[in-house]
Amino acid sequence: MTPRLAVFDCDGVLVDSEGPVNELLAASLTHYGLPTTVEECENQFVGGAMPSVFREARRRGADLPDNWLDEIYSKMFERLSQGVDLIDGAMDVINALEAKGVPVWIASNGPMQKMRLTLGPHGLWERLCGRILSREHFAAKPAPDMIEHAIRQSAVETGQAVMIDDSESGCLAGVRAGVRTLGFAQRGQADALRLVGAEPVKDMREVAVRFGLSI
Q1: For residue 205, how far is the Cα from the chain centroid?
Q2: Which helix (H) or strand (E) holds 164?
Q3: Could you tell me where the DSSP H helices lie in the chain?
Q4: What's the mean pLDDT in 192-209?
Q5: Do the Cβ atoms of 20 and 174 come closer than 8 Å?
Q6: Distance CA 22, CA 10 (A)
Q7: 5-16+84-211 is classed in which CATH architecture?
Q8: Cys-Cys crosslink for 208: which of 176, 177, 202, 215, Cβ 3.0 to 4.6 Å?
Q9: Mean pLDDT lowest among 48-57, 100-109, 122-131, 202-211
């Protein structure tokens, strides 16, 4: 069934930014006394807001300075300004949804500046202006606030909306909002996303099939 509203996570769903970010994060945590691999960052921190990562890393023993968030964001923005690819098929799905008059929104636990850097070169920052939501202005996922805002602004019923996210926290936000939730499981996390109530999908072609779209 084609939804009346589609809400996407950004990192790891629309843009392939999680690899570079997790490389920076793993290096930083290791530097500050918490040996961490990229894979561990993917398993433990994907979908989380960076302030939550800061608190959890300190709890686990990382000797992070008080200005660590500024430091990691500076490194992250520098890396992302070099460009990241779109997830394969993401633009095709967005184009197909909008061709059917379905509004597309983004709900991310990342800051707006990060999304401007990753979405801008692909034209999506300007194209989706006013429909890009961040935890800077709403409660972070797994709270459902961003999704509920998109539903209200789009004037659709909850049952007509769909959330697509690759993290447990993001999928849980969709479930808590009462919308159909697709778990974007390209990293092999299908079981974990299924456990929080999402329908796992392996790629954007499967998303298109679930939406009744041809891409």
Answers
A1: 18
A2: strand 161-165
A3: 18-31, 38-45, 50-59, 68-80, 90-99, 112-119, 124-127, 145-154, 168-177, 190-195, 204-211
A4: 97
A5: no
A6: 15
A7: 3-Layer(aba) Sandwich (3.40)
A8: 215
A9: 48-57
Give the type of residue at 94. I
- Parts of the chain belonging to CATH 3.40.50.1000: 5-16+84-211
CATH architecture of 18-80: Orthogonal Bundle (1.10)
pLDDT, tens digit, 9 for 90 and up, residues 53-82: 999 999 999 999 999 999 999 999 999 999
Distance from C-alpha of 2 to C-alpha of 107, rounded to nearest angstrom = 20
Measured between alpha carbons, how far is 6 from 65 in angstroms, rounded to an integer?
Answer: 39
The model's pTM: 0.87
Sheet (strand 180-184) strand order: 132-134, 104-108, 5-8, 161-165, 180-184, 199-201
pLDDT tens string 74-123: 999 999 999 999 999 999 999 999 999 999 999 999 999 999 999 999 99
Range(s) within the chain of domains with CATH label 1.10.150: 18-80
What contacts 213, CB < 8 A, 6 or more positions away? 2, 93, 96, 97, 100
Q: Is the pLDDT of residue 177 over 80?
A: yes
Residue 162, classed as helix, strand or coil, is strand
Type of residue numbered 50: M
CA atoms within 13 A on the CB side of 138: 21
Which 8-state DSSP code applies to residue 15? B
